[in-house]
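Worked example 2:
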Amino acid sequence: MSGRKWLWFVPMFFYVLFALWYTNLSGPLTQAEMDAFADQMERSGFEPSAIQRMRQFMEEDTGRQFLMVNVMDMAPTPRRVAGVPADESSDQMMGRYMEHMFPELLKRASHPIFLGRVVFDSMDIVGIEGAENWTSAVLMRYRSRRDLMDIASNPIFAGKHEFKLAALDKTIAFPVENQLYLSDPRLLLLLILFAIVSATDILVYGRRH
């Protein structure tokens, strides 16, 4: 294989590997998987209402990636959690939660795509009380509902989740399936690789013709 062909082949090979890992190729959750996740949540002590809500979430699985929209209002002083120093801040408490979440997310091709601090009170509220003040907003990308359930049904999650609850005054989190997602890493990486390889091709091999 010529050097020019290798120049194109190697980046595209690694891009395909990345795209295969980053994309859910297993389709929607199966009935057996849904039952297993529900059983695990029951053993972990989840409330029946929470299990029922998550089962409906699983039953409506399309197999596609989705984004979790999180709007959070951090507590000025976090609620106390056993074993945590009394002077720990809400940000530190949330950090304890994310210490568990980040590794679990990243190995499942799931990650934050947006994080921002609120700069002003809510400017448009309809039908919601107490929603004037928020601290931050986060968009979290999940490869599939299977990956979210893998994390949420793990018994370790139940213990770590109390750190998040202690750090917050209030929060709203809901999943959305994107219709327009221009910052998808698969698209960005493809464009970057194409630009780099094309420029290299022109610089190295274009001069020979």
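Strands lie at 66-74, 111-117, 136-142, 168-176. DSSP finds seven helices and four strands in the chain.
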